[in-house]
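REQUEST ID: PR-0412
SUBMITTED BY: lab tech R.K.
PRIORITY: routine
TASK: structure prediction, single protein chain
INPUT:
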Amino acid sequence: MDLEELTGLPDTRLQAATEADAPELLVLQRCCWLQEALLNNTLEIPALHESLDDVREGTRTWRVWTVRQGPRLIGAVRGKIDGEDWEVGRLMVAPDLAGRGLGRFLLAHVEHQAPAELRRFTLFTGAKSTRNISMYERAGYRLVDQPGPVEGHIAHAVFLVKQR
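STATUS: complete
OUTPUT:
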């Protein structure tokens, strides 16, 4: 099934992000993580404090994909090798389009991009982000104890793992 069929959103396309996408990624990121801040009762969310240069750097150090509807950026996700794992990060969908399957599509896409030798997917989300946790669990992720203090993630984040 293609993206338009899945989401019911016409004129949508998935593409690899470039540094030129960074300004729009930053705006979408702030919109999405503001909701996470409210849910988790904290502003200590790294995605809310990143600069444009930080987001640009992310397009160079992670593999990043965007979804656009026409010219509008409506979703994004990124993945990278982290030791023996494929870390999924910054999965975001424009708040007004949540619940249409775009997040599930992006999660499946980023998982399929992982190098074949990696046997595990990992991600973090806010402990009170029940909608996110539910989506990840439906996709086969399980909550596990964090591997120790982890910088760059939501305060009181939960760690989820999926075996390939």
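NOTES: DSSP finds six helices and seven strands in the chain.
REVIEWED BY: pending
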